Predict the structure.
Amino acid sequence: MENLELKLLEEFNKLQRYAVKTPVDKKGFWAEWQNIFTQVKFYKISIKTLLNSAEISLEEKKQLKEKLNVLSDLESYLRELKEVALQVKGFSVFTTEESSEEDDDIDDLTF
């Protein structure tokens, strides 16, 4: 059990570099968010490029796919954080899946 907790702590420490530390309502949040989001996106693009390469082994491809899954989770975290920051600023963030025809305010947006 102790070994597992040590491994978990190591994984946690690796992910800390992707944590946005500036509060969503403070100056500097968006610059930090954009920097981390860009890192995640470019890392994902790099992995996808390597996966399409014939120069890596099956084991390496497996490891890259696992990293890609982690990066997708990090991207979700960053998008959720962005939505929270926009809500704090007073913007309502919704997607077409979240709105229904009964509750659709699109007519209020047209002039």
The first helix runs from residue 2 to 15. The chain is about 65% helix and 0% strand. The radius of gyration is 19 Å.
